[in-house]
Amino acid sequence: MRLSDRSIGMALMLCLTSGAAALAQDVNDAPLTESWAPTEWGADDMAGSVNRITPELVLDAVGLVKQGKVATLGKVYAGDAPAFGSRGWRMTMPGLPTGGPFGSHQLVYNDEYLATEIGQIGTQFDGPGHIGVITSDGLFFYNGRLLDKDPAIGAYGLGPLGVEHVAEKGFVCRGVLLDAVAYRGGQLPIPTGAEGDPGIITDADIEAMVQAQGIEPIGEGDCVFLYTGHGDIWHPSDWDKFDAAEKTARTAEFNSGEPGFGISACEYLAERKIILTGADTWAVEAVPGENADKPFECHMQMQTRRGIWNLENLDLSQLVADGAHEFLFVWAPLKMKGATGSPGNPMALY
After folding, report:
1. Cα 297 from chain centroid?
2. Domains of the chain
3. What confidence tens digit (pLDDT) does each residue in 297-331 have?
4. Looking at residue 194, what is its pLDDT?
């Protein structure tokens, strides 16, 4: 008997949700008791903090372009690039050429076939459907949508949690680069969780970097990026010069943990009503962070609770080399209906 696509989708969703419930020993009802939903943009909102962008903020950000320089911040997507967990990028050419010839002029063409977690690989944007919380009411995601109870959400798309709702607006903002390597005097180490850990950036560290860099304080509508040096393990320009053994070793080191924002830094940025975080690392926040029993706490507090989205695995090297601590940042996720996130190549102009 051939099952319908809907039957298959329902079966997959049941497996996912029942598996999550089986693994959960407890629930976290903070989203319910602390009223994480509806957000300040109303119960129908599906875009989050990108709603803060106004024509005035756009014009102010455009005014930061002084030299006419452009830096692309995306890393190259490739099968041997470091990836989190079991994620991978598998691209093949189904023919060389794939099609043709056509006409008397003998035109041919090439296509590629891609198998990947396209929203969560390489340089990646975390959208509304990426991070959730197991509560007593169900699987809670941005603005109170319940993954296991919303009929518009299924195995073939996340409906109101899809990344396309953020993509309809896009990001045009003041970009702020926090150079933690200059601040710390070298590449930040992977945190150990000790008090005063140099691999964890705190709220006080952010204020100190802003002051040292001589820029305006972080404010509403800003997009804030952290350079830790950890991303240079996956070197933005030299990766293809390494042999397979060196790439394997660097991938293991890159994925073993990372420096980044601690929870006090994330709360500080949220209070200032920023709209996006980013870094040269695979999670942006410190791993491990201050609370060993709360991994990826910033993800939950920023994304699920507040709709402040995240860009990971950025190449910030040109901005660092040019000392570009303020710039016009322009980018939008791909409009992939129902996806958790998006690949892309963000741009900084200064």
Report:
1. 14
2. 27-87+120-349 (3.50.30.50)
3. 999 999 999 999 999 999 999 999 999 999 999 99
4. 78
Ordered alpha helix ranges (H), the chain: 5-23, 30-33, 55-62, 164-167, 180-184, 203-213, 244-255, 263-271, 297-299, 305-306, 317-322
- The pLDDT tens digits for 129-153 are 999 999 999 999 999 999 999 999 9
Burial group, residue 254, by CB count within 10 angstroms (0-12, 13-18, 19+): buried
Q: How far apart are the first and last CA of the chain?
A: 60
The token duo for 344 is 């892309």
> What is the arithmetic mean of pLDDT over 336-341?
98
Of residues 288, 189, 286, the one with CA closest to residue 233:
189
Instruction: Give the SS3 label for residue 213.
Output: helix
Q: Determine the pLDDT at residue 25.
A: 59
Residue 349 — φ and ψ, nearest 5°?
-120, 135
